[in-house]
């Protein structure tokens, strides 16, 4: 069974006001001093108001969920000593002036990309799924392209930007898309062509290194995995587990199609960009673009089409029933974006929205 690992980026906020605080270095220092904590799990990100953790590779989704909850609670415990909290929010609902880290890499990004880097306080969720080789990995990338916007729609958790309603369910996706290497990609056809394209992009001088290959899904440059990077960080960890489950199903299904000689769908990048825009705009509240027909369809129908697409893989891994239950809950209760909007409609106060999201992050 393929292993799965998750990276979550979290927002560091003031425990009293809910405003983001530039405390990542202090939280990492607190983790390193704690003999009961594994400080290697946590990392800083571009902005000092962010903290990232990475799970170990897991084959059981129950164990993956336990680990996600554990590291969220550990991060919250380290932040608490600094009068701060963590929030699984993909953008800050409250106004913020992001603070870029002082490291050489972060300063290079600031110098070269200006406001694109300065404003980039966004929190995503990255799912790593193991593959047997680069050739299999690229075959998977070629075949999962049209399904990635559906994962984005299911994860949407960023309706507010700088204190304003953005009109999007995932405004993070729109902000992240400002990077020149972000978004959907063409069909590569082979591992050689993939690596050639990456090398050409780095050689252009626009990108610092392979770490700046920000495709919606890519071969990891550190692990033998396909890394699916399209999702917002999810408010509820059960949604993260559902995304990881479906991501593994997509990878396994695509690998089987490749072994059986089934070619990838030939949808162009322009259509995939439209599908991503629709998913970021609508979440699960309106129509999405169906990955097979590339025509509008109700969001629930599109999500169920994804489930049906990977059902055989889910049955073999024993994930059908828990995934069905999690999907039913998501469709009933809505994504993090709906939760945030409902909270704001009830309270009229974005600080209250942040406070409740802090509570739900570690619930």
UniProtKB/TrEMBL annotation:
A molecular function (GO) term: glutamate-cysteine ligase activity
Pfam families, A to Z: GCS2
Class of this enzyme: ligase
EC number: 6.3.2.2
UniProt KW Nucleotide-binding keyword: yes
Superkingdom classification of source: Bacteria
Reactions mediated catalytically: L-cysteine + L-glutamate + ATP = gamma-L-glutamyl-L-cysteine + ADP + phosphate + H(+)
Residue stretches spanning the membrane: none
Alphabetical keyword list: ATP-binding, Ligase, Nucleotide-binding
InterPro entries to which the protein is assigned, alphabetical: GCL_type2/YbdK_subfam, GCS2, Gln_synth/guanido_kin_cat_dom, YbdK
HAMAP family per the UniProt record, alphabetical: Glu_cys_ligase_2 (MF_01609)
Function: ATP-dependent carboxylate-amine ligase which exhibits weak glutamate--cysteine ligase activity.
Stated name of the protein: Putative glutamate--cysteine ligase 2
Organism: Streptomyces ficellus
Organismal lineage: Bacteria, Bacillati, Actinomycetota, Actinomycetes, Kitasatosporales
């Amino acid at each position: 069974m393929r292993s799965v690992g998750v990276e979550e980026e979290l927002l560091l906020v003031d425990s009293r006001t809910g405003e983001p605080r530039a405390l990542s270095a202090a939280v990492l220092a607190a983790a390193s001093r704690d003999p009961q904590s594994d400080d290697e799990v946590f990392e800083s990100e571009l902005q000092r108001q962010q903290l990232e953790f990475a799970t170990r590779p897991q084959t059981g989704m129950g164990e993956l969920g336990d680990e996600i909850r554990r590291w969220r609670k550990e991060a919250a415990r380290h932040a608490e000593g600094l009068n701060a909290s963590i929030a699984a929010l993909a953008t800050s609902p409250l106004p913020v002036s992001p603070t870029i880290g002082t490291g050489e890499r972060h300063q290079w990004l600031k110098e070269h990309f200006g406001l694109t880097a300065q404003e980039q306080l966004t929190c995503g969720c990255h799912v790593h799924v193991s593959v047997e080789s680069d050739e299999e990995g690229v075959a998977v990338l070629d075949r999962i392209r049209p399904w990635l916007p559906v994962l984005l729609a299911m994860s949407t958790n960023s309706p507010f930007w700088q204190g304003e309603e953005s009109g999007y369910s995932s405004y993070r996706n729109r902000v992240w898309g400002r990077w020149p290497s972000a978004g959907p990609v063409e069909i590569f056809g082979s591992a050689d062509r993939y690596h050639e394209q990456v090398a050409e992009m780095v050689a252009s001088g626009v990108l610092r290194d392979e770490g700046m290959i920000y495709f919606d899904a890519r071969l990891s440059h550190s692990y033998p995995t396909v890394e699916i990077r399209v999702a917002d960080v999810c408010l509820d960890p059960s949604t993260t587990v559902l995304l990881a489950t479906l991501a593994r199903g997509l990878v396994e299904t695509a690998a089987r199609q490749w072994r059986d000689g089934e070619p990838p769908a030939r949808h162009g990048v322009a259509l995939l960009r439209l599908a991503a825009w629709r998913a970021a705009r609508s979440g699960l509240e309106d129509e999405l673009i169906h990955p097979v027909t590339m025509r509008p369809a109700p969001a629930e129908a599109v999500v169920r089409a994804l489930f049906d697409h990977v059902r055989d893989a889910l049955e073999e891994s024993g994930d059908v029933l828990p995934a069905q239950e999690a999907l039913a809950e998501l469709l009933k209760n809505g994504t993090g974006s709906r939760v945030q909007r409902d909270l704001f409609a009830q309270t009229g106060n974005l600080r209250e929205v942040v406070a409740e999201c802090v509570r739900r992050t570690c619930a």
